[in-house]
């Protein structure tokens, strides 16, 4: 078993990341394939199985060398059955039997979990979690995802929907619509999409001067990266947006920490690449709203694995199954 590999799969709406990973968490080989969500997604698992087989042949390895396939997928997952309950961007009907489908396509045992939970497991195993058994991972990307680990195990909840941190309400009245159907979710202010929306709302008032307004004039649009870089350069409007975003993030993370008191809360996803300008401001608000004993023990950190977190966490699912 020591020389055998696990296939870790991070399934996304446009791209699927795949990696061969050892039982010790070393990535042997990684690559991406497009996610084909046409025809109600009927080619997705077939394409993944085919990509794994082709890569094993290319590397001159026998398929017997693979212990199984771990997969992270967007949306709530019933871990025991491997059914993905609510499917977004993949073409499948709700309650899709993903585990059964990938096992049939690849002729390998599989384990399926929510993608944000896999990212949390990856950070716990090989990343910023540094082996911590109590960890919350918040992914700030196009949306806001969350994974909660207690005593080394993912908290899945009754319906596989635990850890939906992005859908905690932060603006009860007059909040922006969220893709989940609610309004005022954390995702509407702290995701890359939410940050850009806040910036555009301010810029559309037409009174803005400074670097952020200049970037909009030059490029015809702005990104969350533009907001953080302009804030670092002292732009008043960008700093106003940063203040709002980090207030809500710090408040929510303090509330989560007051409930769970984890060793660490890890911030990942594209938005976290802003680095210390984001983390320092979130920490300031976190300290304001966290209970003193929590504030002194729970630490905030930036994720370290980048795009590898999902495939590593997915591989950990199989490792954990084999070690039971």
Give the gist of this structure.
The protein has 324 residues and is of the alpha/beta class.
What does this molecule look like?
With 324 residues, the protein is an alpha/beta fold. The chain has two domains: 5-122 and 315-323, ATPase, nucleotide binding domain (Nucleotidyltransferase, domain 5, 2-Layer Sandwich); 130-304, Nucleotidyltransferase, domain 5 (2-Layer Sandwich), CATH 3.30.420. 40% of the residues lie in helices and 20% in strands. It is built from eleven helices and 13 strands. The protein has helices at 44-58, 98-106, 115-126, 187-190, 192-203, 211-219, 224-232, 236-260, 276-289, 292-295, 309-323, and strands at 5-11, 15-22, 27-34, 66-73, 77-78, 83-84, 96-97, 110-114, 135-140, 144-150, 153-154, 264-268, 299-302. The strands form three sheets. A five-stranded mixed beta sheet has the order 3-2-1-4-8, sandwiched between helices. A five-stranded mixed beta sheet has the order 11-10-9-12-13, with helices on both faces. Strands 5-6-7 form a three-stranded antiparallel beta sheet. The longest helix has 25 residues, at 236-260. The protein starts with a strand and ends with a helix. One of its GO terms (biological process) is glycolytic process. InterPro entries: ATPase_NBD, ROK, ROK_cs, ROK_glcA. Belongs to the ROK (NagC/XylR) family.
């Amino acid at each position: 078993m020591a020389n055998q590999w696990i296939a870790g799969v991070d399934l996304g709406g446009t791209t699927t990341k795949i990696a061969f990973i050892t039982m010790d968490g070393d990535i042997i080989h990684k690559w991406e394939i497009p996610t084909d969500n046409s025809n109600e997604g009927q080619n997705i698992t077939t394409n993944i199985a085919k990509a794994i087989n082709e890569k094993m042949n290319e590397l001159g390895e026998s398929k017997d060398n693979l212990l199984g396939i771990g997969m992270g997928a967007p949306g709530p997952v019933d871990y025991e059955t491997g059914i993905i309950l609510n499917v977004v961007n993949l073409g499948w009907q709700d309650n899709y039997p993903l585990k059964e489908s990938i096992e049939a396509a690849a002729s390998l045992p599989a384990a399926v979990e929510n993608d944000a939970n896999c990212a949390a497991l990856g950070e716990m195993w090989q990343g910023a979690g540094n082996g911590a058994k109590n960890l919350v991972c918040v992914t700030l990307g196009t949306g806001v995802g969350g994974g909660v680990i207690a005593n080394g195990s993912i908290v899945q909840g009754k319906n596989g929907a635990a850890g939906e941190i992005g859908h905690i309400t932060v603006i009860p009245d007059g909040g922006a619509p969220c893709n989940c159907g609610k309004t005022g979710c954390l995702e509407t202010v702290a995701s890359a999409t939410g940050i850009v929306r806040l910036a555009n709302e301010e810029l559309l008032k037409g009174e803005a001067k400074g670097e952020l307004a200049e970037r909009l004039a030059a490029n015809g649009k702005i990104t969350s990266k533009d907001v953080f870089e302009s804030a670092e350069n002292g732009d008043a409007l960008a700093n106003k947006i940063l203040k709002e975003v980090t207030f809500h993030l710090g408040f929510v993370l303090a509330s989560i920490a007051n409930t769970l008191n984890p060793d660490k809360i890890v911030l990942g996803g594209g938005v976290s690449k802003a680095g210390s300008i984001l983390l320092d401001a979130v920490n300031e608000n976190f300290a304001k709203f966290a209970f003193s004993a929590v504030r002194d023990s729970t630490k905030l950190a930036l994720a370290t694995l980048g795009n590898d977190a999902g495939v590593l966490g997915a591989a950990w699912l199989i490792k954990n199954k084999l070690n039971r």
